[in-house]
Write a structure and sequence with these properties.
The chain has helices spanning 3-99, 104-120, 125-139, 144-152, 164-174; strands at 186-187, 202-204, 206-207, 222-224, 242-244, 262-264, 282-284, 302-304, 322-324, 342-344. By secondary structure, it is of the alpha/beta class. Helix 1 packs antiparallel against helix 2 (104-120), helix 2 (104-120) packs parallel to helix 5 and helix 3 runs antiparallel to helix 5.
Length: 367
Amino acid sequence: MRTSQIRSLTTRASRRRAQNRTRRIIQQRAIRRNFSDQRGNNDSRHPQRLSLLVASLPGIAAVIALIFTWVSVGQAKEQLRVSEQGQITDRFNAAIVNLDSKTMDLRLGGVYGLQQIMRDSPRDQPTVISVLSAFIREHGQVTAQEVAKRYKLLDEPYENRAPTDIQAAINVLTRRPNGSDAGAVVDLDQADLHGMRFQGHGVKLAQLSGATLRGALLSGSNMERVDLSYAILGDARLNDTLINRSDMQGAILVRVQLKGAFIADTNISHGWLTGAQFSSATLTGDDLSGALLWSAKFDHASLADVDLSKASLSGADMTHAKLTRVNLNGADLTNADLRGAVLKGTNLNGAALDGAKIDGAVGLPRR
């Protein structure tokens, strides 16, 4: 190869290397420029981000404080609830101990201590109802001998006062707050409640089957769905009392006072109501079939849809009474006083009216 050709090739190679070197330098400068621009932009945004972060710090702190407060309050409430429940348990145990005391003052303290627990802790009301019911039953038991004795003395008027601690327990039960019973029932079956005073209070959902309430004062009371079947209520006063959907089947109500009472949908069948006073009372939908109502007073009373079939009403006073759709089928009305009575749709089939006074009565069948 000639020397001139070699030089020419060498010159071209040198040029290529120079061009490549120039390109690399240009590319490196471009990269440095871009990096510098990006860095400048980042440096300009950094103060903005920092300012935003600083401005949001109080809000973040407030949220954290709120969460901490909420957690602390929840823990405090739980601790308070546990503490209060512990205090109520201690108070409840102390009241139970007092109820078993032989001293009247301590027993009264136990009764009223349980009353305060009902007010402070509605969730414990069913338990208090059960405890006080058991206390009354325990301290007011009726023996078979006592029942027999009281049956024999029913012909004699009865006046007596109940024991103070039992009366206090009755007051607490009848005045308890509404809506917290949770299905609890005042169970006073077979209890001795003679001379008790329930005046002006509610006696709801109570079991008093076979109980003795002779001479008890229940005037003005509200008796709703009360079980008084076979109970003894001789000489009891129930004037102006509301008795609704209750069971008084076979109850002894000798000389009971029911003046102005409102008695609805109540079963008094086969009851012993000699000398009972229903003057100006309202009876509707009641069952008194087979009841003994000798010399009972129904003057100015209003009876509607009442079943008195086969009832003994000998000598009963029914003057100016209103009897609407009353069933007197087979009833004994001998010597009864029906003067001025108004009978509408009344069934008198088989009724005995011998010696009855019927002057001015309306709706009686012609003899």
